[in-house]
Amino acid sequence: MLELELLRAFVAVADCGGFHRAAEQLNLTQSTISQQIKRLELETKRPLFRRTTRSVALTDEGEMLLGDARRLLQLEEAARQRLMAPRLSGSVRLGVVEEVAGGSLPSALGRFSALHRGVKLEVQIGVSAELIEQLDAGRLDLVFAKRPLGTSKGKLVWREPMVWAAAETFDFVRGAPLPLALYRERSVSRDAALAALRDGELTWEIVYTSPSLTGVRAAAVAGLAITPLPLSAVTAGLRVLGAGDGLPPLPDLEFAIYEKRRPDKAAEALATALLALARGPLRPTI
């Protein structure tokens, strides 16, 4: 029998890309996570991660185990919630960024609603900064958004690379400014992209803005500009650009859940459910 706590640590390390971030997510020490992974490798008699001083990556055996581990944890969470879920009522106003809403969030909310039929969900899609402002102003109860760079607020759910993306047919015009497609204003990815470019020697201009991920990505697919995207949001028709193209590196994106200062029971239950489900396939698949 594989212990669920060991599988939970294994999935967290795989999702977070390292032991330190996994420990933060599970509210454990890094040494505890390391011990749990060692125990799991002893039980399975297989190496599950390739470790270097700079990175942690799944082995082939780890890749095979990951899907099964997710399913087992989801079954355990569903059974536990069915048995222990309190009778809740009221409403929860949830704000989410498009990167999250475009994944399997609807099915996650459907499972929550099935457990708590007395809770009404109101979902608003927007940009991280605006959603967090609405939370602080009391107009939202819960926010699932990108964490502003340089902050540690909220409960970390996952971390992933941010990359420069452009159409597969995009060509740089020698001597011309780099064309950019960015969120209209106050976006984590917009701020990160502009900060990276200001520190470099490239000339650039913003040629396209949109309030949504769909909009900036469409501009990139059309070959109008390049745009910063989460790696998971790079879809067909786009390619990733990097140092070989003369572009500066971008920081990783962190997705976190934010709660209002005094959440009620329904909002707390939804936050807990999203954190648990996010360890499985809640991550975006857009």
Automatic annotation (TrEMBL):
Pfam families: HTH_1, LysR_substrate. The keyword Transcription regulation applies. It comes from the Bacteria. GO terms for molecular function: DNA binding; DNA-binding transcription factor activity. Residues 2-59 form the HTH lysR-type domain. Keywords: DNA-binding, Transcription, Transcription regulation. InterPro entries: LTTR, LysR_HTH_N, LysR_subst-bd, WH-like_DNA-bd_sf, WH_DNA-bd_sf. NodD regulates the expression of the nodABCFE genes which encode other nodulation proteins. NodD is also a negative regulator of its own expression. Binds flavonoids as inducers. Belongs to the LysR transcriptional regulatory family. This is Hydrogen peroxide-inducible genes activator. It comes from Bradyrhizobium ivorense. The lineage of its organism: Bacteria, Pseudomonadati, Pseudomonadota, Alphaproteobacteria, Hyphomicrobiales.
